[in-house]
Amino acid sequence: MKLWLKFNLVFLVAFVIGLSAIGMISNEMLQRNAREEVLHTAGIIMQGAMSIRSYTIDEIRPLLSVQIKRNFLPQTVPAYAATNNIARLRKMYPDYSYKEATLNPTNPASRATEWETGIVEHFRNHGDKQELIGEHESPTGKNLYIARPIKIKKESCLTCHGKISDAPESMLARYGESNGFGWKMHEVVGSQIVSVPMEVALKRANKTLTTFLVSTGSVLLAIIILLNILLYRIVVRPVKKMSSIAHDVSMGKMDMPEFELKGKDEVASLSQSFNRMRRSLVNAMRLIDE
Ligand code: HEC
To answer: Which domain holds residue 181?
Structure first.
């Protein structure tokens, strides 16, 4: 087997093993990072929803407290404000969805589905739990979610969600009396849930991995090409030359020009020793001939 082939086989094995090892290690790391990044964005969206809720309670509702008696304005309802604001935000982040999943909602669109009910029940059973992060299998694939409990902490909430008789007439006219009532103080009635398809995190991780592997592969390939050029110039070419001269000398062609490499490396010193040996051989032959 030729020298360059031997070297290149070793390079190839090192290249494949090295690149797969890098791929495997970084894949896991990138997926973890992408998951964290997606959850971080989900956390910001969740925080946004919380801020809109408190803004609506503190700033909007007091301004419209008179008008609401005549004509119900859902814009004063924190849940409505948060859901509608996040719906607008979703134009920028279409992968993320937000819901105030509630067991007994005023607006039927907010009714918790089966898996959401599981989350609400979890918060109801673990009163101290403030956040839940998890994965959920849906017909369209795996989803990542962040959930926070919706707990009734203010008496004022019960005006509209407590007894039907306490609720504003204008609200009853719009939403009816069949649901969204009977909530209690300190009760967990639902959960804010921000969810995002797992695919978003995986796609992000794969994209980074591909870029990373292509660039690492290219650098390794460039190194291999460089090593090949060096191998050819420093070892293969001079050794080939010397071997062809040795061949000719052994066949009796003593008049071949000398080939001597300048320098102090092993191949140069081989060429110098070879020339000395050749000169001794020529002298010895001459002595025999005399
Ligand atoms: C002025 C009446 C009113 C008050 C006060 C009020 N809500 Fe509501 N709430 C509503 C209405 C109406 C909806 C339905 C809005 C919509 O169309 O999505 C709603 C919706 C909700 C929802 C979403 C699920 C559902 O029932 O549709 C949650 C959760 C909620 N409210 C919690 C609260 C909490 C907590 C408070 C106290 C901080 C509160 N609400 C105060 C009227 C009120």
So the answer is: 27-197
Average pLDDT (250-254) is 84
Q: CATH no. for residue 77?
A: 3.30.450
pLDDT tens-digit readout, 71-95: 889 999 999 999 999 999 999 889 9
Closest residue by CA, ligand 1 atom 10: 77
Give the position, in ligand 1's atom list, of the atom nearest the Cα of 104: 26
Nearest-CA residue for ligand 1 atom 32 is 79
Q: d(Cα 121, Cα 47) in Å, to the nearest integer? A: 22
- The pTM assigned to this predicted structure is 0.78
Contact 107, 124 (CB under 8 A): no
- Assess if residue 192 is contained within a domain: yes
What's the total number of domains in the chain? 2
pLDDT for position 68: 82
Same domain, 108 and 175: yes
- pLDDT above 80 for 290: no
> Ligand 1 within 6 A of 116 CB?
no
The span from the CA of 110 to the CA of 79, in Å, is 9
CB 51 within 8 A of CB 78: no
Same domain, 120 and 235: no
Ligand 1 center from residue 79 Cα (angstroms): 5
How many residues are there in the chain? 290
Indicate if ligand 1 lies below 6 Å from the C-beta of 72: no
